[in-house]
Design a protein that fits this description.
The structure holds two protein chains of two kinds.
Chain A (H helix, E strand, L loop, with lengths): L8 E8 L10 H14 L10 E5 L2 H4 L19 E4 L5 H14 L5 E9 L5 H4 L15 H17 L3 H14 L15 H6 L2 E3 L2 E2 L8 E10 H7 L4 E9 L16 H14 L4 H4 L2 E3 L5 H10 L8 H6 L23 H17 L12 E8 L3 E8 L12
Parallel strand pairs in A: 2-3, 2-4, 9-10
Antiparallel strand pairs in A: 1-7, 1-8, 4-7, 5-6, 8-11, 10-11
Chain B lengths: L6 H10 L22 H14 L2 E5 L5 E2 L15 E5 L3 E9 L16 E8 L6 E5 L12 E6 L12 E6 L3
Antiparallel strand pairs in B: 1-2, 1-3, 4-5, 4-7, 5-6, 7-8
Classes of the chains: A alpha/beta, B alpha+beta.
Chain lengths: 398, 172
């Protein structure tokens, strides 16, 4: 592979809407809310933006060309707009695309926007259109049935318990109380309450699963020569990686338990950013956990613990707000999931932590942060951000 | 003073002054019809399923055996030009009992809950397919348990995975 010499690039601004049932806003109004918050935080205007990357999953709203929204009040008239859909990963893929446009030297400042209005369609039915029409749709059981089946395999391989999974739900909804944008805030939630919540699909209870939200998120990627003027502490991109797995849902032998694309992408990114021990080297992680069992499995596949030890990791408090590696201080996907925005929120929250602007859920002294996106049939995006500028000519992208 | 407001402040004020209960929501139903060509490989599989109740897989030179059958192996990159019979019995590689109501997109009506659902790995195959499992309680299913397909009557079969009505756990 020939060496790449990217322009050093940073996230300099991030903004997001309040997540929830947003009947008060159209799709464009929702996006504008996130974009305004993002740009105003650095006194930027649309004139400063060279190009826009937009992420969304079309079938939730049933609009095939949502890019058209962006040429009106969303600032892209006469500029390039790149529309992406990579399933649940799309928010992170959109941030990665904005990164590539800047790192390649093509643009100086690129706006990435991800959004979804889950309340406008039927999430479980729309997700069926992800499936192969010949082989998969006739017998799909929505995202919940799929996750429940994956969780059963994970349980059989790791011995993780329903109580350990419930601890993830408790952590998420308590952390969410410190995040003004989160949807599900439950200060008094207990493990028992999670286990007593209605069973959606065995072994996934209602409180083991993410809500369906409306919301939007925006970030600005900037080139080195303008980034330092825009933010006191830009969140420098040290590595990005993306990986996919095989075509059909039953192709991967263990799905959640052995998430091959997450292992491949994180190993590449760790090598590029010089991460030897993720627990030591990262100060915070924002990972895409649509279900409690997924978060425990991701701990293992991201090497936060040994394979099969995800349950012990949550038992030990490793990933709590005051743990050695806080995971999802924002409350995570379990506390707000507007699919097209969700993976970008992980990136934005990681950037805010690095910039020292995460507010009440800020972790002290964050230098390096990890963000991941999960979606589709086991697609993974990974981004590593740091307060330190990367070495010149570092190869940061695979 | 309003000229000094930021766009975010204007939005906040507008949201506070907006009566959510009177928010207009416009209802639409989009019905789109498709007719998907299954292709040469799937046509061979579904024809064998419909006519003979046999489950066929494709194999490559490295010995990877895959259902759904496909022309090329994603792992080896080699052509999968050998057809082999697998199953019809297999094991559950993943499974669940679904309780949440869900509109079946193939019929437009809600599938009765609870129902069993899981990944079936046919004997002799390396990959699995999702299908329905005839069970209503978690105790009736489990990862690693053996299952057998229940086919529709020959005259009811159309050449799709739905020609298998569901799978039955057989190691009770």
């Amino acid at each position: 592979m020939s060496p790449i010499n990217p322009v050093r690039t940073a996230i300099v601004a991030a903004g997001q809407t309040d997540f929830g049932r947003r009947f008060d806003a159209s799709m464009a109004e929702l996006c504008r809310e996130a974009i305004d918050r993002c740009l105003e935080s650095r006194n930027l205007s649309f004139d400063d933006i060279d190009a826009v990357c937009a992420g969304n999953m079309e079938m939730f709203e049933g609009i095939y060309m949502v890019d058209q929204l962006f040429v009106g009040a969303l600032g892209a008239l006469g500029k390039p707009v790149y529309k992406l859909n990579t399933g649940g990963t799309v928010g992170a893929s959109t941030a990665l695309a904005a990164y590539h446009l800047v790192a390649s030297g093509r643009h100086k400042r690129v706006l990435g926007v991800g959004f979804q209005k889950q309340t406008e369609g039927s999430t479980q039915s729309a997700i069926t259109t992800v499936g192969d029409p010949v082989w998969e749709r006739a017998v799909m059981a929505g995202a919940i049935g799929n996750f429940a089946s994956m969780a059963s395999t994970y349980i059989s391989m790791s011995g993780v318990t329903q109580e350990q999974a419930a601890k993830v739900a408790v952590k998420a909804r308590k952390n969410a109380c410190l995040n003004p944008h989160a949807q599900l805030k439950m200060p008094d939630i207990t493990v028992e309450q999670v286990l007593e919540s209605p069973m959606l699909a065995y072994p996934i209870h209602q409180l083991d699963f993410c809500p369906a939200s409306d919301g939007a998120c925006a970030v600005v990627m900037a080139a080195e020569d303008v980034a330092a003027d825009l933010a006191d502490h830009p969140a420098w991109v040290h590595a990005v990686a993306t990986a996919h797995d095989q075509q059909y849902m039953g192709d991967q032998p263990a799905r959640l338990a052995v998430m091959r694309s997450l292992q491949a992408a994180s190993k590449k990114a760790y090598a590029l950013a010089g991460i030897d021990d993720p627990v030591q080297d990262f100060d915070v992680a924002e990972i895409y956990e649509p279900a409690t069992y997924a978060e425990l499995a991701w701990y293992e596949n991201l090497q936060f613990c040994e394979m099969g030890k995800g349950g012990e990791a949550i038992d030990s408090g490793l990933t709590l707000m005051d743990g050695e590696l806080p995971v999802n201080p924002s409350g995570g996907v379990l506390s707000a999931n507007a699919v097209g925005a969700t993976a970008m929120v992980r990136v934005a929250e990681a950037a805010l932590q690095v910039m020292g602007e995460a507010g009440e859920h800020q972790i002290d002294g964050v230098n390096r942060a990890l963000a991941t996106g999960y979606g589709g049939n086991a697609w993974t995006d990974v981004m590593i951000l740091s307060r330190e500028r990367p070495r010149p000519s570092a190869e940061v992208s695979r | 003073m309003s000229t000094q407001m930021t766009d975010s402040e204007r939005t906040r004020a507008a949201r506070e002054g907006f009566n959510r209960d009177q928010a207009i929501r416009i209802e639409q139903q989009i019905t789109l019809q498709y007719r998907f060509a299954a292709g040469r490989t799937a046509t061979r599989f579904f024809t064998a399923l419909r006519e003979e109740g046999r489950i066929l897989a494709t194999r490559d030179a490295e010995g990877n055996v895959m259902v759904p059958p496909r022309p090329v192996c994603g792992l080896s990159g080699l052509p999968m030009d050998e057809w082999v019979e697998v199953g019809p019995e297999g094991v559950l590689a993943g499974c669940t009992i679904v309780y949440v109501p869900f509109i079946d997109p193939m019929t437009g009506v809600q599938r009765p809950v609870p129902y069993g659902f899981g990944l079936v790995r046919f004997d002799g195959a390396d990959t699995s397919i999702y299908h329905l499992v005839n069970a209503t309680e978690p105790e009736q299913i489990g990862v690693g348990r053996r299952v057998s397909p229940v086919f529709k009557a020959p005259e009811e079969r159309t050449g799709s995975l739905a020609d298998i009505r569901h799978f039955e756990v057989i190691d009770r």
